[in-house]
Write a structure and sequence with these properties.
This is Site-2 protease family protein. The chain is built from eleven helices and no strands. It is mainly α. Helix 1 runs antiparallel to helix 2 and helix 5 runs antiparallel to helix 6.
Amino acid sequence: MTTAATRPSDRRVSPVFLGILAVTAVTGWATWTGFAAEPGLAVFLFVTSAWVVSLCLHEYAHARTALHGGDISVGAKGYLTLNPMKYTHALLSVVLPVVFVIMGGIGLPGGAVFIERGRIRGRWKHSLISAAGPLTNVLFAVVCTAPFWLGALDGVPPAFRFALAFLALLQVTAAILNFLPVPGLDGYGVIEPWLSYGVRRQVEPFAPFGLLFVFALLWVPSVNGVFFDAVDGLLGVLGIEELDTYCGFDLFRFWRGSDELCGV
C-alpha cells in the first residue's frame, strides 16, 4: 500500500497557514523591538498566532502519522496542507482552544482531523497516531524553553521573554492534558487499541464530552492549584520562573491593564 498523497496539491502548504505564520513573525518582531505602542497587544497577537501555528502542527502530526500508517485519505481531506479551515470542526479546533487560553491560560487543542482507522492495521500504529499530536507540543515546548535552560536570555527584551514563557506554558499544559487517558483526548487514543471491545463500547458515548469535562474540572480551585503547581514545577526545572509566565499571561490579557510588577 502506498503511503504517499495522491496529488502534489494535497501536500502543498496552505496560504492560510503561511499567513498565520507571517502574523507570528511580524508580531514577534514587534514584541522584540518594542515597535508597538502597547506591548500587550503585540504579545496577544504573537502568542495567539503562535498558538494557532502549534495547533496546526499538532493536527498535521496526527495526519502525517496516519498517512504513513495506511490512511491515504488524509491527503484528499486537506489535512497535510496545515490549513486549519480544512479541519473537521473549525470551532472546536481553533476558536475553542483560543478561548481556553484567554479564559484560563490553558493550552488544550480540540479534535480536528478525522482518521479512517479501518485503513490502519496494528495497535502500535493506532497508538502512535494519537501520540503524535501531543508529542509535537512537547517539541514546541522544548523550542520555547530553550533560551531559558540554555541561559541565552542576555539581551532578550522583557516583553518577548514573558511572551515566550507564557507560550511555553501553553505547550506544556497542552501536552500534559492531551496525554490524560480521558475519552476524546489523545491520551485515551493511545491506550484505546489495547482495551477490550466491551470497554471501548461503554466508553464511546462519553468521548464528545471529554474535552469539556477536563476544562470544567480545571475550574475547581483545588484541582487547578495542584495542576498548575505541577506545571510551574516542570517549567521551573526548565529555567522558567513563575513571574515569567505570570507576566506573560498578564501582558496577553492587555485589555485588563498591565501589572506594575512586570515592569514593561
